Description:
The structure holds two protein chains of two kinds.
Chain A: E1 3-5, E2 10-14, E3 19-21, E4 24-26, E5 32-38, E6 44-50, E7 56-58, E8 64-68, E9 73-78, E10 87-97, E11 100-105, E12 109-114
Parallel strand pairs in A: 2-12
Antiparallel strand pairs in A: 1-4, 3-9, 5-6, 5-10, 7-8, 8-9, 10-11, 10-12
Chain B: E1 5-7, E2 10-13, E3 19-24, E4 31-38, E5 42-50, E6 53-56, E7 65-71, E8 74-79, E9 88-95, E10 104-105, E11 109-113
Amino acid sequence: AQSVTQLGSHVSVSEGALVLLRCNYSSSVPPYLFWYVQYPNQGLQLLLKYTSAATLVKGINGFEAEFKKSETSFHLTKPSAHMSDAAEYFCAVTTLVRGSYIPTFGRGTSLIVHP
Amino acid sequence: DAGVIQSPRHEVTEMGQEVTLRCKPISGHDYLFWYRQTMMRGLELLIYFNNNVPIDDSGMPEDRFSAKMPNASFSTLKIQPSEPRDSAVYFCASSLSRGQDEQFFGPGTRLTVL
């Protein structure tokens, strides 16, 4: 079974500081990897995804993530945090299971941005 | 497209009552997923459909939970009878059939069972 580990249920940064949210996955085959963001009282929405085209993936709102196969990681970064980035972030991996592509989500990391 | 539509947005009911949650996926999407989100357990996949056929319901917690997809544009998740521990936010999501296709989530239904 696939698993996704997000280190740190909460990450706190100052406005303007670097954001780093960690994600590691277990997969025996090249996966498809995603980061989703959830704002309060809303559903999840796609931030970015890795589909093997390039190891460094750029997403919306200035976020990017780098796929490192040797480390089985897909960490999310943003150079400068903004107050509006405060939200819950989920890493997900999609793998082929009995003919269907099934997502596995991490537990999520709550990003707190303080002035 | 209006995105994934869920109704109701909020549901408050009493223990023992039947609850029906509804979902309209994005037109043309092959997959439909039902999730439950709680503080304690995070985001849990309950069941998913491929072309209206239930593929894996191993995430459904108990026989009190059932889901149907009578056609490509409608799905229901039913809880009968409901219990206080069923209180959660329930999300419906849909996607195309390729692994690199992301899921599109609805706004969720916040269920409170008293």
